[in-house]
Amino acid sequence: GESVGLHLPTLSVQEGDNSIINCAYSNSASDYFIWYKQESGKGPQFIIDIRSNMDKRQGQRVTVLLNKTVKHLSLQIAATQPGDSAVYFCAEKPHGNAGNMLTFGGGTRLMVKP
Amino acid sequence: DAMVIQNPRYQVTQFGKPVTLSCSQTLNHNVMYWYQQKSSQAPKLLFHYYDKDFNNEADTPDNFQSRRPNTSFCFLDIRSPGLGDAAMYLCATSTSGWNYGYTFGSGTRLTVV
After folding, report:
1. Cis amide leading into B69 (omega within 30)
2. Residue A49 contacts residue A57 (beta carbons within 8 Å)
3. Is A41's CB within 8 Å of B107's CB?
4. Residues 6+ apart with CB under 8 A from A12
5. Closest Cα partner for B110 from B93, B96, B94, B90?
6. What is the spatial distance between Cα A54 and Cα A38, in angstroms, rounded to a whole number?
7. Would you call A93 and B105 a contact, using CB atoms and an 8 Å cutoff?
8. What is the pLDDT of residue B99?
9. B104: which chain A residues are within 8 Å (Cβ-Cβ)?
């Protein structure tokens, strides 16, 4: 059968609270970053992206912060809802069409308690 | 709605028996990718097609092959599945622009018995 995977870090929050999910990326040449949400048994779903010329971008209930100095990315979810429960992956991409490969970081499991 | 469709959602195959997973897209994206995702792990890129050009990742086993007969379809062939190949297989598409993310299908869960 399937080999046992790594244990995902888990963030457990109360419904209505804000959530912050962190990601450290490794490639200093990366200049485009994406957060994906993956629910059980489904493919990753795009949430929000940010280019390296920005340090903050806001969407509906979500904010992504980028700190290029320490190569850190975070996803903030406001007023977390049960439907936000999922695994969240950050992904990075280096500049240029030839390097159009998205590399995923390790995921974080978000559990929302009602 | 434009989307990426993977069939089947669940596939059970016997150890060593060739299996093919399929992916189709209506987005007219020129790049298509196959990822392998094992439990509690990030998706791992196996290979991608940039138009008709096939690009294999260095650590993708020879057991995995792919075909892209046209823009809309891409297939993943596993020639001799082993127990370690049991995983979720994800197809994704993108344009060739650098600042666009990927659109993923719902995946095919492969079980090897």
Report:
1. no
2. yes
3. yes
4. A111, A112, A113
5. B90
6. 25
7. no
8. 63
9. 36, 43-45
